[in-house]
């Protein structure tokens, strides 16, 4: 039998080559597994060294972030940023910190919204409980949109600046007339009554002129420019009353 195997090379050679090939493949597979384990081992060791957030399972978001229940938004933001920096790399810790922060942020937003609603309700209740003459007075007042307020404020501020620039040449009679016409125009747009608009505008001008005539002489002359006359300063006060009249009255 031994002699047959030795004398028959065609039979023994494929068998031996197959065994050698299998052994080589097994060795390569074992080397690949060992290399993968070696590559994975240090990574696991690094992740294991990342500190874990100790309050990760604390239910109260204030206690989880380590702040008091009366903490401001700045303190909440500061605690969140500090903890995220301290426990960066630990996924569960970061998720726990972010969840507590979002919960407090949402609670703060809802509280501001509720406070705003309560303030409106209280103001409305105060108006309803006020005396009749106050209710009648408030019926003449309205709050226009912000852009309308700023446009009219810019117009009357321009008239005031124009009057100051021309104070050395003459009085502000022309600027006052233009401001009165603008006030009547704006009031007519709201009231749809030219007579009512002219009455309110003229009353605003007269009230402002009288108040200016009383207040301006009380101002120390050291604060005023030599070219600023009593008429000019009184007209500036009148512009303020014209602005208030055409913007907030109806």
UniProtKB/TrEMBL annotation:
The keyword Transmembrane helix applies. The chain crosses the membrane at residues 171-188, 200-220, 232-249. It holds the Pfam family CPP1-like. It comes from the Eukaryota. Keywords: Membrane, Transmembrane, Transmembrane helix. GO terms for cellular component: chloroplast membrane. The keyword Transmembrane helix applies. InterPro entries: CPP1-like. This is Protein CHAPERONE-LIKE PROTEIN OF POR1, chloroplastic. It comes from Trapa incisa.
């Amino acid at each position: 039998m031994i002699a047959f195997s030795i004398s028959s090379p065609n039979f023994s050679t494929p068998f031996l080559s197959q065994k050698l090939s299998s052994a080589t493949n097994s060795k390569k597979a074992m080397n690949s597994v060992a290399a993968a384990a070696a590559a994975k081992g240090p990574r696991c060791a690094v992740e294991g060294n990342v500190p874990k957030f100790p309050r990760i399972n604390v239910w109260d978001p204030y206690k989880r972030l380590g702040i008091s229940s009366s903490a401001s938004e700045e303190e909440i933001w500061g605690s969140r940023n500090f903890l995220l920096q301290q426990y960066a790399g630990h996924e569960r810790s970061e998720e726990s910190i972010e969840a507590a922060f979002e919960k407090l942020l949402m609670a703060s937003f809802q509280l501001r919204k509720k406070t705003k609603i309560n303030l409106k309700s209280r103001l409305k209740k105060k108006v309803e409980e006020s005396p009749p003459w106050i209710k009648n007075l408030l019926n003449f007042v309205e709050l226009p949109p912000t852009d309308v307020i700023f446009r009219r404020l810019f117009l009357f501020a321009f008239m005031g600046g124009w009057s100051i620039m021309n104070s050395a040449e003459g009085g502000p009679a022309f600027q006052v007339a233009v401001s009165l016409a603008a006030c009547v125009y704006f009031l007519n747009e709201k009231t749809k009554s030219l007579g009512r608009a002219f009455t309110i505008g003229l009353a605003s001008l007269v009230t402002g002129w009288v108040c200016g005539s009383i207040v301006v002489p009380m101002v120390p002359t050291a604060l005023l420019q030599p070219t600023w006359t009593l008429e000019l300063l009184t007209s500036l006060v009148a512009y303020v009353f014209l602005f208030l009249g055409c913007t907030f009255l109806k």
